[in-house]
Structures are given as C-alpha cells and as structure tokens.
Amino acid sequence: MARPGDALLFSVVRRDVRPWLLLLNAAVATTSALLLPTALANAVDMALSGTFVLVTVLLLLLLAAVEIVGDAIGIVLAASITARATAWLRKRLSRHLLLLGHPPRFAAGDAVSRLTGDCGNAGGVVVTVLSLVIAAVSSVGAVVALALLDWRLAAVFAVSVPLATFLVRSHMQLTADDVLAYQEVSGEISARLLDAVAGRHTIAAAGIADRESGRVLQPLPRLAAAGAGMWRTQAKMMWRAGLLLPAVELAVLVAAGFGILQGRLSTGDVLAALGYTALGMGIVGQIPQLTALERTRASATRIAEVLDTPVPGKAVSAPSSGCIQLRDVSVEGALHDVSLTIPAGAFTAVVGSSGAGKSTLAAVLGGLSPVDSGEVSGEGSVGYAFERPALLGATIGRSIGYGTDADEIQVRDAAVAAQVHDVLIRLPQGYETPLADAPLSGGEAQRIGLARAIVRDPKVLVLDDATASLDTVTEAKVDKALTTALPGRTRVVVTHRPATAARADLVVWLEDGRIRGTGTHRELWTDEDYRAVFTGGE
C-alpha cells in the first residue's frame, strides 16, 4: 500500500546518477555470479575425467575475481550514494523546519530525531531497493539457468515460488505498522528527553528527577511492544525461510539425482543445480533488506509529514529604508489587533510585563513568526540578537560571521561595536579560539550574538532582550557604538530597563498582547501602570 513518503523516496532515487553506476556494477557482478556455478561444474567434470583445460580454469578464476571486485566497488558506491542522499534529505528537511518559523510545529527532540535517524534511514533507500532488485534478478536468472540444465529442475523449483512470494509479502505487511510505530515513539521519547535536558536545573532544584524520568520514559512500553513485534515477525520469517531453503535444495537434489541416473546430468551439473537453487532462493534471504525497506518507508513518511506542512507566507518584504508597519496583527495567544508604525531610523523600545507579547512582537517584525491575521509590511533587511543566542560555527570569529561572507576586518569591527572585542582578543587563540574552548559568560555570549547581527549590516536591528545580562554602563556603551556602527538604522529593543526606554525615540507599551500606549518614555511615565512595569519587575 502506498504511503505519503513513497513519492519522496522516488525523488531520492532519481536525483543522482550514481544509482545507475551501482546498477551497472551489480549487473556485471550478478552475471559473473550466475555464470560461476556452470564454470565450477565444468571444472569438476574436467577434474573427474582426468583432463585439464586451461581455458576452463582461467574462466573460473576470472568469474570469481569479477564477482569479488564488483562486490568491493558496490560497497564504495553504496556508501557514497547513501551519504549524498542523507545529506540532501537533511538539508531539505532542516530548511523546511526553519521556514516553518516560530512557534515550532514539531517538538525540538522529535525534529532532531527526524533529521538524524529518519533521514539516515531514508537516505539508504537506493541501496536497499537495488539490493532487492538485484536479488530478484539473480533469482530469475538462477531459475532460467536451472531450466537450461534440465527443465525438470526448474519445475521442481517453481513449486516453491508461491510459498516464497507469500513469505516475503506477509513479512512486509506485518512489519510495516510496527516499524512506523517504533519510529514515531522514538521521536516522542527524543522530544521528552530534550525538554528534560533543557530544564535540568529546574528539575534538580525542584527535586523531581524521578518523576521527570518517569515522564520521559512513559512511552517506553509502546516502544518495546513495537520492537518486540518487529523481532517476532523477523524471527517467524527466519525460521520459515530456514526450513524452505534446505527443503527446496533437497527436492532439486533428488530431481538432479534422477537426472544422473538417466544420463541427462553430470556430477558437475548437480553442483551447478545446487548453486542455482541457492541463488534462486536469494530473495527469501533478504530479510534484513526487507525490514530495512519498511523502516525506510516509515522514516520517509515522517519526513514527508514535515515537508508537506505548509510554510507561512513571509511577514516582511525587503527593499530599502527600514520602516515597519503592522495593521491589525494577531497571533493566537500572544498578540491581538496590533497596529503600529515604526519610522525608518527610529530607536524603538518595546516594554511590558512578563507575558505581554514583547518577544512575539519582535519575532513578527522581522518575519520570524507568522501572523494569524492582519498585515505586516516593512522595508529593509532585518538582523536579530537574542537574550540567549545559539552560537554556531567552528571558532568565535566564524560564530560572529556565521551565515555570511564577512572577512576578518568586518568580524572585528562588529565585535568592537558590540563591546566584546577586548574579551575575545584575550582568549587563547583570539578570534580563532574554538567555541568549545571559549569560557563565555552570559553577557559575553549576548554581545557575540549582537556582533553576529551587526555584521549583517541590516536596515532593521531587533534586540530581543539581547543586552539583559549587561550592566547599565556597558549597555549604554553598546547603544552608543551601535549608533556609530549602524548610523540611521531602525532599532527595536525589547527591554525591561527604564534607562533604555528613556533613550528611545519611541516606546511601545504592551499589555496582555495589546498596545496599551505609545510615545516617549517621559510621556508615558506619568501613567502609574507604566511605572509599575519597571518597578514591578519582568
């Protein structure tokens, strides 16, 4: 039965020329494997007759060498095809996950499971399918070879074909549901585990580690049931196939024995018949590949589930000046009918109590979060800095220039503007210090994240509490440096500090997802509720 991921697997198969190379190599190796029993039979008959024919011996050695070399080449090609297909799937899936924006449609741990395990499984589809095709072709070729030896041998073998077909089909049907369930539950456990790791300090402080372990492992019985189902199905297939192969070999051997008695077959022909019988039953021996195929299809279904999720439209357009307008914008559970104009070049502070919708508004301004209704229009590229930036890249310098073509001078200038240059040059290898070897405080990490936003030279710079870990003096220095480094740019700062709001050209005061007021800090300060935003804390 077709699954949503089958079309994706077809795309993986057809996108690369290497599968054709693998198929060509397999054709040569399979041909050699099919000719080898006959060559071996001739060699045995030659030895029994007491004669020596050099050509027969050389042909036997040549066929064996071709099969061995073909297998070696096939291993290299298979690894290359799987790696390239996996990389393509991961790139496509990660791009789509990023385009889905915030809030995430898929739990972080589940997304990681799909990017790692599922893409790895689906990336092996070409090799898995070709292995099964080659096994099927070998089986057909072996039956033809048996018929050429003696049609009676092929007829005896043909009796086993319906039973072998039934075994293969039932195995795939019984395995399908268990494999998909196993993949889904694995993703669920990954999501729970990642949540627990992210909140490990809170869990430890609350003394609920045992309870949290139980929550993370709660789906484990379902995982065990799915895994046990897979093993039961595979074990059933194994013992049935284990009985079928020797039974068919015995039947063919008996028929070949009668052929010898009647003078139709030689001793070497009997050995060839046994070899072709083993090759003919090869498709039944592909139990691991059949299971892998179902695992591949299950993984592709989970990947397709993400890729088929519609990407929200871009919230912000991007030509030139830096002006942003919101008209009746709503985001479920966060913003309600927000209308706002941020002039180009203005320094705007967004304030409000905890849960007022400040971070959501900041995400909407630059298109990081889709809107449920309303319209967002803007002019200018947007750069972001966050309270807890995720630092990516091999070194500190590349972390600042991550995703850009910025050179060393541009990276250094951005670090200077973010007031973090003096910190970085004191590191063991300066800007070339690996991230893993750089002991950074929260404030230093924030300033590196800010430098990463500055190096992009955006028309609009959004700071989502990105200076919260800085003291007031350092924050004022950063503000002054930003004015120098990015003159005339629009800046939007989410803040809980009155000093920051006082420096702003415009203050947007949010309350329960709505704009309570706009104006300068001085103008709004006359309102007791506005003052409570700062005196009451975040």
Keywords summarizing the entry:
538 residues; alpha/beta; 6-stranded mixed sheet; 3-stranded antiparallel sheet; 9 strands; 63% helix
What does this structure look like?
63% of the residues lie in helices and 10% in strands. By secondary structure, the chain is of the alpha/beta class. The strands form two sheets. A six-stranded mixed beta sheet has the order 5-6-7-3-8-9, sandwiched between helices. Strands 2-1-4 form a three-stranded antiparallel beta sheet, with helices on one face. Strand 8 and strand 9 (514-519) form a beta hairpin. Helix 2 (18-49) packs parallel to helix 5 and helix 5 (125-149) packs antiparallel against helix 12. The model is unreliable at 314-320 (pLDDT under 50).
Blueprint of the fold:
Blueprint: H1 6-14, H2 18-49, H3 54-100, H4 108-123, H5 125-149, H6 151-158, H7 161-198, H8 200-206, H9 209-217, H10 220-261, H11 267-280, H12 287-307, E1 324-331, E2 335-342, E3 347-351, H13 358-365, E4 373-378, E5 382-386, H14 396-400, H15 408-417, H16 421-424, H17 442-454, E6 460-464, H18 472-485, E7 490-494, H19 498-503, E8 506-511, E9 514-519, H20 521-524, H21 528-535
Parallel strand pairs: 3-7, 3-8, 5-6, 6-7
Antiparallel strand pairs: 1-2, 1-4, 8-9
